[in-house]
Design goal:
The structure holds 2 protein chains of 2 kinds.
Chain A (H helix, E strand, L loop, with lengths): L2 H18 L5 H25 L10 E9 L4 E7 L1 H24 L4 H20 L3 H22 L4 H29 L7 H10 L5 H15 L8 H8 L2 H26 L1 H27 L4 H22 L2 H32 L10 H4 L1 H14 L6 H14 L6 H27 L16 H19 L2 H25 L13 H10 L2
Antiparallel strand pairs in A: 1-2
Helix pairs in contact in A: 1-2, 1-4, 2-3, 2-4, 3-4, 3-10, 3-13, 3-18, 3-19, 4-5, 5-6, 5-10, 6-8, 6-9, 8-10, 8-11, 9-10, 9-12, 10-12, 10-13, 11-12, 11-17, 12-13, 12-16, 12-17, 13-15, 13-16, 13-18, 13-19, 15-17, 16-17, 16-18
Chain B lengths: L1 E2 L3 H22 L1 H29 L3 E12 L5 E11 L1 H24 L5 H23 L3 H19 L6 H32 L4 H11 L17 H19 L8 H4 L5 H10 L4 H8 L1 H4 L3 H23 L4 H22 L2 H28 L12 H4 L1 H15 L5 H14 L9 H28 L6 H4 L6 H16 L18 H5 L1 H17 L13 H21 L6 H8 L1 H8 L4 H47 L7 H23 L3
Parallel strand pairs in B: 1-2
Antiparallel strand pairs in B: 2-3
Helix pairs in contact in B: 1-2, 1-4, 2-3, 2-4, 3-4, 3-10, 3-15, 3-21, 4-5, 5-6, 5-10, 6-8, 8-11, 8-13, 10-15, 13-14, 13-19, 14-15, 14-18, 14-19, 15-17, 15-18, 15-21, 17-19, 17-21, 18-19, 18-24, 19-24, 25-26
Classes of the chains: A mainly alpha, B mainly alpha.
Chain lengths: 525, 681
């Protein structure tokens, strides 16, 4: 069997086995779910090492194509490019971490909880791997159900409002995408839902309705990202979700939106994308600054971290709108970074919550004396989140900002400078959080007896810390696989820009003087 | 250039020390912790001496390349952005690493005694931070590109944050740490934009690459750029923009106007930290940056004028505040801000070596002063108010003697080191030429001279109030001298403050073979391109300038006279005949006195203009835009759908399978309808 297909459906198979185990064997459910997620991770390592990142290698690897509903032109077509590979890896790394983190936190309906997590993993991997529009849509919607249940059943007090808001927001938006997919099927004249064929057909002969189709896709993805002003489901969903839900939501689900832009909205409709890029860039910058300002005034830890996601994902969207090689590369990298650092922040906030059962920042203070290990870990993750050099966050932010500065985006320097203000604001709200939770004197008596990190929690956080440092100091192994995908996207844009005939609009603008360029080239070994 | 992989050890040793002490220090015991930390520093110092001596003797630069950190290539395979790991030692960085590791080692030793009251965990944490700081500072100095310098730049900012807030259970100290980090981040914002600009202009951020580019631009700086981000600008304008951005970064790190506000608060950290980070090394990083980019700054006279003018203003502004401070560390902090201003005058008017010279001499005497202040605090039970001291000369002779020497050095009395370095700067300013603002050199000289007079006054005041006269409190009467572990580093630094003159021996000829002007000769190669640019600009202005021209010596006498005058005045005011004068002056101008004592209320101004509005606008946005408008709309839709839901409620009973079934049916129906409408099979 195809390795990719195995990775996609291993968690689902695990979920089926879990369903057969009696409800009262909570320990077995935990152990088995963890084992399944580890096996999935091990299998995905095969993808990682088997992937060929050379420019000459095929775009989609580990490809499988099987008819599913041939009369309708729907097939089971999966395959991954470098970007999808990285996001699949992110998913398979985060899932065991999340399962381990929920070991004690989830005490009721343990069986259903782990089934939901495993089903969700299959849906997430499937979304990244799908190469058929209907298959993509099925996986996309399939993610909603377990997530809906995770928040609705295991969430906190206000969970019903949050779930309904989450569901209505995302479902309404994705219906637009479904309509666009159906329109494509009818008018692209391929008689198939196959992504690769549709993309080729559109590249040969763009549709007149492309701007509308682009908007339909873009809105569906923008809600998921989320982009300002479609972000208000996020704070509620994050805040009410159980820790595991928040981590997956922040770590992987938000990337569905940015991945959707990268895989679908931009390459399918490059002309329309060029037309709307300024809108995207402006909304991205607003998101960066606005999200940071929102974080600054929150009194609830989870809500603060949730709003910081709006800010961080703004950077990702900005890199996409810049459409320069550095910007796109940084954008994809920042997807991974956000998954790791914000995921880790939610894990840490969850650990504090398990100890004190409150998310109110004012209930904490001075914890560093009692829980130095948690404090130190929290600080490292914070530094990653605010992009300190040496952590992964710096590489992503630097590539995005430098790539935006030197791009064909209108007023690129102003946009990049405004976005860079977000780097200052990130330090403002994150360090204030650290100060109010961990520094100062211990004011509440409940905080005097808190236990520090347990061994299990250490295992939960260790991979995150390791990734933060490794990806900060040695980013190239992670940048290499995405290179061919980024280049293909840029070429696609270049074809579109030639067709539009308004001069260069994508890629990297030339340097000021040729003499300096040779100097720069001479430095490269 | 020679490859010299050993350079990495200079950074790796303290980094390793930080990791070991950070992870296992609390179980190792204090003796082992200090052994590891000090050992790492000594090792780093010894390794640093190797490239330094190679320079001093063979004049040969060394470097070490270690591959790509990260890069992005364009679709054509050319370089869009590339950052490599590489270190480089030229005379400029050679001087810096010796200062950092040398003074760093002394302060580590001093700290072993000063911090001995901490518990094991705190002691290990302290030394881990201190070692980490050394590693970051050395990265800043050794990095061969702006991006690597930025790595160290933010790294030292982090360590500064951690060490200012070392006693974090005190909320004020924790706040001071955060304030330092955030203000530095504002500077870093400028630094980043500067780097992006240079990347967009020349496609590189390595110093070697930028120097080549500067050579290329050299002759025709006024040419218009034809392509790229800065199309339509002249090279000079684009460079001025980039360099001003970088100077924002330098002003943040080196506490210049208007970003100096974090440094006085940074005194919340342990005193050895103030000596090492907030006096001798980290805060000089901005000066280092400007000197490092001399070949670019010399092409942008407007940027240089800004550097010099901001430096001069800061020198005077901070000196004035120092007049009315009563906290021994606060006086020294404002003094540091002021002295950094002098260094910026130096690099801003093109006497790069003099800026570096003052950096080195200042590192000695200011570290000595801070450690002296620490010794006083140690002996007085952490008292920092100089009004409660007095007469400590008898009780703490070593501290008093070294403090006196360092005070005279910073005052600028012949023949101590501060005189030579400060007056090299002021003399250089007076005789400099700036095409964008010809008067800036003279203005900087005038403001700087007044600031030098103020320096003499407030430093003498500080010394007199602390050490002379009679003890004014019980604690001062029973103060005790510190242990030799603390006084020996004091003496070494004091001797350094005296011998500093030998760093740049002012007597003797100027030929290539004499031993005079060591520092100036040593660094000539680094600054030669910048000097050539300046000389060319001066020629274009029709003047003779640059180095080698004979200058009159009256500015030297004037500066010396001012120093003496300030010292005598302060002595009269605080120990002599005019003892009543300060109090009477304060009574005569109460508002003015309060204004100065309150540090011109700049913190309050920032709070009013920046911090509060930001907080307020954020809150309003949250309440109005997020909760009011957007969620209002969403909930409106929600209420509408609830009505619909009341009808379809029958389908919802919390059963997973049923949800899935409904969704499948719904998808099927939509699909069927759409396909049906399309008329396809």
């Amino acid at each position: 069997m195809n390795l990719l297909t195995a990775v996609i459906f291993l968690p689902l198979a695990g979920a089926l086995i879990l369903a057969l185990i009696p409800r009262d064997e909570a320990g077995q459910h935990r152990g088995l779910a963890f084992a399944v997620s580890l096996v999935t991770f091990a299998a995905s390592l095969g993808l990682w090492f088997g992937f060929d990142a050379a420019a000459s290698a095929p775009e989609f690897q580990f490809e499988t194509h099987a008819p599913w509903m041939p009369s309708l032109g729907i097939g089971y077509h999966v395959g991954i490019d470098g970007v999808a590979l990285l996001l699949v890896m992110l998913t398979t790394v985060l899932t065991p971490v999340v399962i381990l983190s929920a070991w004690r936190a989830v005490g009721e309906r343990v069986k259903e909880f782990f089934i939901a997590i495993l089903v969700l993993e299959t849906a997430m991997i499937g979304t990244f791997a799908a190469l058929d529009l209907v298959l993509f849509y099925v996986f996309w919607e399939a993610m909603l159900v377990p997530m809906y249940l995770l928040i609705g059943i295991w969430g906190s007090q206000n969970r019903l409002y949050a779930t309904i808001k989450f569901f209505v927001y995302t479902f309404a938006a994705s219906v637009l995408m479904l309509l666009a997919i159906l329109y494509l099927y009818q008018h692209a004249e391929t008689g198939t839902f196959d992504y690769v064929q549709v993309r080729e057909a559109l590249a040969r002969k763009p549709l007149a309705a492309a701007p509308w189709l682009f908007l339909a896709f873009a809105v569906a993805f923008a809600v998921k990202v989320p982009m300002f002003p479609l972000h208000t489901w996020l704070p509620d969903a994050h805040t009410e979700a159980p820790t595991a839900g928040s981590v997956i939501l922040a770590g992987v689900l938000l990337k569905m939106g940015t991945f959707g832009f990268f895989r679908y909205a931009l390459p399918l409709f490059p002309e329309a994308a060029l037309q709307y890029r300024s809108v995207i860039a402006v909304l991205a910058v607003i998101g960066i600054l606005y999200g940071a300002m929102m974080s600054f005034v929150q009194t609830d830890m989870k809500r603060l971290v949730a709003y910081s996601s709006v800010s961080h994902l703004g950077f990702v969207m900005l890199g996409l709108a810049a459409m320069s090689e550095a910007g796109l590369t940084g954008s994809v990298y920042q997807m991974l970074n956000h998954g790791i650092s914000t995921g880790a922040l939610f894990l840490l906030v969850g650990m504090l919550y398990e100890r004190r059962h409150t998310r109110a920042i004012a209930e904490y203070g001075g914890l560093a004396k009692r829980t130095p290990l948690i404090a130190a870990t929290f600080l490292v993750v914070t530094l990653s989140s605010i992009g300190l050099p040496g952590t992964n966050g710096f590489v992503g932010e630097f590539l995005i900002l430098a790539g935006t500065w030197r791009s064909y985006l209108g007023s690129s320097t102003v946009v990049a400078a405004l976005a860079a203000v977000g780097v200052i604001l990130g330090a403002v709200y994150m360090l204030r959080l650290v100060e109010r939770v961990f520094l100062g004197p211990i004011r509440k008596d409940e905080n005097r007896t808190l236990p520090d990190l347990t061994a299990r929690e250490g295992f939960v956080l260790a991979p995150m810390i390791a990734l933060i440092l490794v990806m900060g100091l040695m980013p190239q192994p992670f940048l290499d696989p995405m290179k061919p995908s980024v280049d293909r996207l840029v070429r696609r844009f270049q074809t579109a820009e030639t067709r539009l005939g308004r001069g260069p609009q994508v890629g990297t603008p030339p340097l000021a003087n040729p003499a300096a360029r040779t100097a720069a080239a001479a430095e490269r070994p | 250039m020679t490859q010299f992989p050993m350079l990495w050890a200079i950074i790796a040793l303290p980094l390793l020390g930080a990791i070991v002490n950070g992870l296992a220090g609390r179980r190792l015991g204090k003796a082992n912790v200090s052994l590891i930390a000090i050992g790492a520093m000594i090792g780093s110092f010894l390794v640093s001496m190797v490239p330094f001596l190679r320079h001093a003797i063979f004049r040969r630069a060394v470097e070490s390349q270690a591959g790509t950190w990260f890069e992005a290539l364009t679709v054509d395979g050319t370089n869009a952005l590339s950052v490599s790991w590489g270190l480089r030692v030229d005379p400029l960085s050679a001087v810096m690493i010796v200062v950092v590791t040398g003074i760093g080692t002394l302060i580590h030793v001093y700290s072993a005694s000063y911090m001995s009251h901490e518990d094991d965990a705190g002691y290990a944490r302290y030394f881990a931070y201190l070692n980490l700081f050394a590693a970051a500072m050395l990265t800043l100095v050794l990095g061969d590109s702006l991006v690597l310098t930025f790595v160290g730049w933010e790294g030292v900012g982090l360590c500064s944050y951690l060490l200012i807030g070392f006693w974090y259970t005190d909320p004020m100290k924790a706040y001071a740490g955060r304030k330092a980090f955030v203000v530095n981040r504002i500077g870093d914002f400028g630094f980043l934009l500067g780097v992006f600009s240079l990347f967009a202009l020349f496609g590189t951020s390595t110093y070697g690459g930028l120097e080549l580019a500067a050579q290329g631009v050299g002759r025709n700086a006024s040419a218009v750029i034809a392509q790229g981000i800065f199309a339509g600008w002249t090279y000079q304008a684009a460079l001025t923009f980039a360099l001003l951005c970088l100077f924002v970064g330098a002003a943040g790190k080196s506490a210049q106007l208007p970003l100096y506000v974090w440094l006085p608060d940074a005194m919340a950290g342990p005193t050895p930290v103030s000596a090492l980070i907030h006096a001798a090394t980290m805060v000089t990083a901005g000066v280092y940056l400007v000197a490092r980019l001399s070949f670019l700054y010399s092409l942008a006279p407007a940027a240089m004028a800004t550097v010099a003018f901001v430096g001069a203003l800061t020198a005077l502004f901070a000196a004035l505040i120092a007049f009315a401070q009563n906290d021994i560390k606060k006086v020294l902090a404002y003094s540091t801000v002021s002295q950094l201003g002098f260094m910026f005058i130096g690099v801003g008017v093109g006497v790069w070596w003099a800026g570096l010279f003052h950096l080195v001499t200042h590192a000695f005497f200011k570290a000595c002063l801070f450690l002296g202040a620490g010794s006083v605090m140690h002996g007085m039970g952490d008292e920092t108010d100089i009004r409660k001291m007095g007469g400590l000369w008898r009780r703490m002779p070593h501290t008093a003697w070294t403090f006196a020497i360092a005070t005279l050095a910073i005052t600028g009395l012949v023949p101590l080191s501060g005189f030579w370095s400060k007056d090299a700067i002021l003399g250089g300013a007076l005789f400099s030429h700036n095409g964008a603002w010809p008067a800036v050199g003279g203005i900087a000289y005038a403001i700087g001279s007044v600031a030098a007079l103020c320096t003499a006054f407030y430093m003498t005041r500080l010394f007199v109030l602390t050490f002379a006269g009679k003890p004014r409190t019980h604690a001062a009467e029973h103060a005790h001298e510190s242990s030799p572990v603390m006084t020996v580093p004091l003496w070494i630094l004091a001797v350094g403050a005296v011998l500093g003159v030998f760093i740049n021996w002012p007597f003797g000829g100027r030929g290539p073979n004499d031993l005079g002007h060591r520092l100036e000769e040593l660094t000539r190669g680094v600054f030669s391109l910048g000097d050539r640019h300046l000389a060319a600009a001066a020629r274009a202005l029709g003047e003779h300038g640059g180095h080698g021209a004979e200058h009159p010596s009256w500015p030297y006498f004037a500066a010396w006279g001012l120093a003496v005058l300030g010292t005598i005045l302060a002595w009269l005011f605080y120990a002599g005949r005019l003892r009543e004068a300060p109090a009477r002056l304060a009574r005569a101008f109460p508002a003015g006195y309060r204004f100065v004592a309150d540090k011109f209320r700049v913190d309050e101004l920032y709070d009013l203009v920046v911090v509060r509005p930001f907080e307020w606008i954020s809150y309003v946005f949250w309440r109005v835009v997020d909760v009011g408008i957007i969620d209002g709309l969403v909930n409106g839709v929600g209420r509408g759908s609830r009505w619909v839901a009341s009808i379809v409620r029958l389908f919802q009973n919390g059963d997973v399978q049923r949800y899935a079934a409904i969704m499948a049916v719904a998808v099927a129906i939509i699909l069927g309808l759409a396909l049906g409408m399309g008329g396809r099979p």
